[in-house]
Design a protein that fits this description.
The protein is 45% helix and 0% strand. The chain is mostly helical and 83 residues long. The chain has one domain. α1 packs antiparallel against α2. The longest helix is centred in the middle third of the chain and has 13 residues. It is globular. This is CAZy families GH78 protein.
């Protein structure tokens, strides 16, 4: 875990991606409260964090569901669809 509370993309690497945070939530490495905060950050700052691919969306949505963000997904315009 990096100094910002996010999971690093690899040992000693100061890079962070949405995918890594998603798996941190789904595996229980990140607690739900911190996971929600972190996932929101990755959803809101698309330029700073590499986003999940379309193929990874299933896991993104499951992580969003786990931290009670699933019903708010339309707000984030995931994969370029803004509702």
């Amino acid at each position: 875990i990096g100094r910002n509370g996010m999971l690093q993309d690899g040992p000693g690497i100061d890079d962070y991606s949405q995918q890594t945070q998603v798996f941190g939530i789904l595996t229980g490495v990140l607690d739900l409260e911190n996971g929600k905060k972190i996932l929101l950050e990755t959803l809101e700052d698309k330029e700073k964090y590499a986003q999940c691919s379309v193929a990874m969306s299933f896991y993104l949505f499951r992580a969003m569901e786990k931290v009670n963000l699933y019903k708010k997904q339309m707000h984030f315009g995931i994969h370029g669809v803004r509702c």
